[in-house]
Amino acid sequence: MKKQLIFTLTVLMVLFSGTQLLVAQTVSTDNSNTGKNWKDFKKVKVAAVQLWSPARDEPDAVKSIVKYIDRAGKEGVQLIVFPEYLLDRFTVPCEKTVAVAKAAKRNNIYVIAGGWEEFENGEYSNTALLFGRDGSIVGRHNKVHPAVGGLNPYCWPPDSLDVEWNMKKGENYDVFDLDFGTIGIMTCYDGYFAESADILSLKGAEIVCWINGRAGPIEEFIVQTDIFRNYIAMITTNLNPGSGTMIGTWPATILAHVKETGDHYISAEIDLEALRIQRKHSRVFNQREPGKYGVITESMKPQDKYIGWRDDTNVK
Fold first, then answer.
1. Distances (CA, A) of 145 to 15, 28, 78, 307
2. Whether 256 contacts 48, CB under 8 Å
3. 75-113, pLDDT tens digit by residue?
4. Cβ contacts of 33 within 8 Å, gap of 6 or more
5. What's the pTM value of the predicted model, to 2 decimals?
6. Would you give the distance in Å from CA 198 to the centre of its chain?
7. Which domains does the chain have, with CATH numbers?
8. How far apart are alpha carbons 220 and 168 in whole angstroms?
9. What's the pLDDT at 57?
10. How far apart are CA 184 and CA 217, in angstroms?
11. Numbers of helices and strands, H then E, in the chain
């Protein structure tokens, strides 16, 4: 059954339990157009863009995206990250993805951009595409946790017609070995589950890109917590009705931060060598007890304790 894909901008704070840890895979190394590997990069310059969806407001759906890719290329940026939903509806390949691919290749830069990827069987996913320096698609992340709307203040249970509730959900958290280092991707509500950043870091991600599409701010305390606990750097992006686009690194240092709404472009240099020294000698990594964490992958429902207690949704 066909579902109309509606662009949504909602701050969604949903209490959801019973999530499973998903096995992540490592995608092949991509060192196209540099001939280098991660050991050759002591630092990397990255950029993050806060932007309204050009797919809804401009005849050329990727005009703004290409403009920022070209700017980043001139400034020596190695990776530029855009917000969630920015490509709106798309297939691979299509005019939109080809335009982004050409800009990535022209600037010899990695690009993350995505939206609603539609498939021939009528299904669709909230997909973030990772374009390589040569313009090819070298990775993708399908959003695992739908950011559903609801009929009460807690956004649960979801509306049965909710666009994200009916999408094809992602099944794993992949990490991608690029020439300068290893990265992972989370999409919006994925970032509310601690397991998302945990898995990516444990699979080797040094930089986690958290793309968002909401009307409110990205929570700095979540970003700093993920950075500190997982020994990672983070790049976050948001659409321009919201805010909180930022770049940060370990231990909890925010290198650049957009605290206002509107269109913004920020860049910063991440010290990969310093981050890797911390990851290599991390006491946390060395003292993990994975055999004792099994309950995380079980279907636990702590909310069931309160069945029959109160039927109202208001705090009095």
1. 12, 25, 29, 24
2. yes
3. 999 999 999 999 999 999 999 999 999 999 999 999 999
4. 108, 133, 134
5. 0.90
6. 14
7. 35-286 (3.60.110.10)
8. 29
9. 53
10. 21
11. 7, 14
